[in-house]
Amino acid sequence: MRQIISRLRAEAPRRWPRTGWPPMVIATFAWHGVALSGWLLQPSAWIAWLASVMVSHIVVVTIGLWPRSKLLGPNWTRLPDTPSNADAVALTIDDGPDPIVTPKVLDILDRHRVRATFFCIGTRAAEHPALVREIVARGHAVENHTHRHVHTFSVTLPLRLAKEIDSAQHALETLTGERPMFFRAPAGLRNLFLEPVLHRLDLRLAAWTRRGFDTREGDADRVLERLTDGLAARDILLVHDAGAALTPTGDPVVLAVLPRLIDIVRSSGLRFVTLRDARASLSR
Question: Which of 75, 87, 208, 219 could pair with 238 as two cysteines, CB 3.0-4.6 Å apart?
Fold first, then answer.
């Protein structure tokens, strides 16, 4: 942890404002203090105080299972409400890079002149460095999606969270020459320790507005419907280039969805931006 903090101090000025501890985090720790005091003052009521602490834990865990919640800290579920984003949507692509699917996704984006945001896993990026550089060379943004994408991420304690996220941060910065600006948790699941870690690492949590569930749905029509039903300006759309479900013909469903999704977005009078583009509008 000391090495992480020391390296952070040597980096460029912060890109995200200091926000302090989220109210839900403060309330949770405060309630633990109240419960401890109550137990000390009235030991016979220890069962009631213990139950109240358990209830608070259940509430926090439940909130952490809600990817679009902002109760545990700042969370981009839509693009900022600025004039520049009034006709914009963001296409975000998770879990890569994949040596087979990602190049095909890049070709589709090139043909349609779309720029996207790729949330990459650190270990995958290290295995395919040329592909990560190709993503950036083609005009897309690479952001942090943890180093190993473990399923236990949402129950990880602060030191391990910091190591997991910073390892990906370092790997992606080394490959692209740019520090990731956004972070997305595996499946969007998190806990109350995440925001303080992201704050120290100068990252902003980004969830989504609409997702196609394309890792388990091979029907391109259904994936597309989930992504476009109620489509509106400032939406953040989520698909996957790694681990995507297969269509009946055996192709990753994302390849069948993307061209049609792009056409629908543009026919709705909307344009694609990266999350970094959308964030830049805040300073205009």
Answer: 208
